[in-house]
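Input/output pair, single chain:
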Amino acid sequence: MIVTSRDTLAIARVTARKGRTADLTRTVRDRYGIDLPVGPRRAQSGDMAFIGIGVNSWLATSEKELDGFAASLRGVVEESATVSDQIGAYQVLRLTGRHVREVLAKLISIDLHPGVFNAGCAASTSGSHIPLTLWCPSENPESIELAVPRSYSHDFRHLLGQNAAEFGSMEN
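Output:
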């Protein structure tokens, strides 16, 4: 299994303000061409994605705009949502390899079978008491991305290494 840190991925939390979800949905569709996912799903257009993490709450990610991403997004959604920068709060990891799902299955209690957890799926859960948001970015069943709080990222990587040991070494 290969673990890659997504240091060039900007991340922000977007929460619709009371009674403004329809406005936010329309703004995101018009500006980014994305229908905000309802529930634990991921929707992407170009370098921008929104991941449903709770009721009227999403993680927004951008491949292109690292500096100033949250401020830029705040300017787009204006009064329909609250936007908070999460670049310093999370480390986003890409896990790839033949045994990614087996390794994660030892740590989390959701069904990761490719027939269930596939492209567009997302989940907020915990792995050995560490809060995680994970998603399947593509049709590749050997690739899963996850956001782990930065303060736990070292410990989580250690857990991944321990649980990947039976399948061979883990590359960073």
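The mean pLDDT is 94. The longest helix spans residues 150-164.
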